[in-house]
Amino acid sequence: MGRLDGRVAIVTGGAKGIGKVYCEGLAAEGARVCVADIADGSEVAAAIAAKYGADRGFAVTFDVSSERDVEGLVASVVARYGKIDVLVNNAAVFSTLQPTEPWEIDVALWDRVMAVNVRGPFLMVKHAAPHMITAKYGKIINIASGTAYRGIPHMAHYVTSKGAMLGFTRALSRDLGKHGIRVNTLAPGLIMSDSIMANTEHIDEMRDAVIAARSIKRDGHPEDLIGALVFLASGESDFVAGQTLAVCGGTTST
Ligand SMILES: NC(=O)c1ccc[n+]([C@@H]2O[C@H](COP(=O)([O-])OP(=O)(O)OC[C@H]3O[C@@H](n4cnc5c(N)ncnc54)[C@H](O)[C@@H]3O)[C@@H](O)[C@H]2O)c1
User: Domain containing 141 — which CATH number?
Assistant: First the structure.
């Protein structure tokens, strides 16, 4: 028996990188999973369906920064599965960002990072939470980053957007807890996702320093996040709200 048997989950940014592993991890625990991404997630959904059953995964291509797209995504999940139990706000402009001095960040790029990384999670909550309120149950997991605690150079747009997730979680937790919705943050440290590994030039520069700052002195992998994700998505964390769980080998204490 899985810890998420009967649950319906949406993972934004689920087509690749860490999000793809989140989708697989939730499905392995019994959840039906919507792989929602601006990229094509049909292969991830097909792999889940092949392994766990035809109704266990489907993909929706959407832009999380567009309210119309978010409304369409939520409607398609509810039409297909009848409810939303778990929302993982994982989609972000991240691995495509080039390190840039703050004064050289293009204003349009700054706005795009905020539109995807901050407005996106808000839009998802705006449209998914009413279904959770009706069901008097829900789990919202906002994906932040250890960088929001430490700051890192040359990523002011990204770090600012991830800092916003910490306040967003705390505020939502107050508003939604009385409706049975638990809102928490998962804050990964540097994780060797396939997107990150595709950009090895910048990674190689920081990898040794990142590992040296950890208590657990090794690389982090997407699979390292699954225990915490499933905990926050399942009934095991039903008395946990407004918290940040940092999964970073001990670099950051929240
Ligand atoms: N890899 C790390 O070291 C690390 C560390 C801390 C936090 N994180 C966070 O984990 C999450 C996943 O990171 P990743 O390493 O897999 O990088 P990634 O860049 O591959 O993940 C982003 C995902 O979001 C999707 N996406 C981007 N814009 C979108 C949009 N407008 N609408 C819908 N989907 C969109 C992308 O297609 C991609 O699948 C991000 O929120 C990131 O900030 C990653």
Answer: 3.40.50.720
Residue appearing with tokens 């699954």: 226
Q: How many CB atoms lie within 10 A of CB 144?
A: 26
As annotated, the active-site residues are: 158
Q: Is 254 part of any domain?
A: no
Q: How far apart are CA 184 and CA 241, in angstroms?
A: 6
Residue 17 Cβ inside 6 Å of ligand 1? The answer reads yes
55 CA from centroid of ligand 1 (Å): 25
Examine the pLDDT at 199 and tell me if it is beyond 80: no
Range of the structural domain that residue 78 is part of: 8-247
- In the numeric block, the tokens 């059953």 are attached to 53
198: confidence class by pLDDT, cuts 50, 70, 90: confident
pTM above 0.85, yes or no: yes
State the distance from the centre of ligand 1 to the C-alpha of 95, rounded, in angstroms.
Answer: 7
Q: pLDDT tens for residues 159-168? A: 999 999 999 9
Residue nearest to atom 13 of ligand 1 (CA): 18
Q: Is the CB of 35 under 6 A from ligand 1?
A: no
